[in-house]
Amino acid sequence: MKVLIVYTHPNHQSLNYAFLERVLKGSEENPVIEDIKLLDLYEEGFNPVLEFNEQKRRRDMHTDPTFEKYREQLKWADKIIFVYPIWWGRPPAMLLGYFDQVLASNFAYRDKGKWFSEGLLKEKSVVCISTMKGPTHYPLFLLNNSHKALMKKAVFQFIGIKNIKFFEFGDMEKQKGSQEKKLHKIYHYFRKVSK
């Protein structure tokens, strides 16, 4: 199994970075995982701003050389892991900008008539690891599960990915937020995961 990790947090001293380290450690100890690639969007200097003009048309995004490297990473991976905080009830703009530009029509999906599309990344699986300051069930009860609905239905299922696992960790800024227990859970999951 080939694993791509997309990390989206500007601070390498953060709890999100600690989760990234546990993903890496568990994955490196997993005999099923043969190769791991890491994409750190902030360190990479990824530009999340979507641009269209006379030279840069939306219908040509799937061949835009600026994003070829990222398309190749997604094609290569069997499992894609996203590590990010939840800010304002959703992932950071940096990650959403990555989706806007890399998951282009005729690469990640194909339009099939007026109302339908076909996902083109079907054989892959996704794991989302997110942290938030608020309570764990805040997105579920107060935001109508908007984070999972966005990621699962509007993004991943749209591009054909049905095998999606979420780890949403709340209360992460509290002293008694069980950070070490949650970090160990992630390490243990990736040490054993097989699909």
What does this structure look like?
The chain has helices at residues 15-28, 41-44, 68-76, 93-102, 138-142, 146-156, 179-192; strands at 2-7, 35-40, 79-85, 109-112, 116-119, 125-131, 163-169. The protein has 195 residues and is α/β, with parallel strands linked by helices. The strands form two sheets. A five-stranded parallel β-sheet has the order 2-1-3-6-7, with helices on both faces. It has a two-stranded antiparallel ribbon with strand order 4-5. It is globular, with a radius of gyration of 17 Å. The N and C termini lie close together (8 Å).
Q: Number of DSSP helices?
A: 7
Poorly predicted ranges = none
Q: What composes the largest sheet?
A: 5 strands, parallel
Which outline best applies?
globular
End-to-end separation:
8 Å
Mean pLDDT: 90
**Sheet/helix structural class:** alpha/beta
Rg, please?
A: 17 Å
Order of strands, widest sheet: 2-1-3-6-7
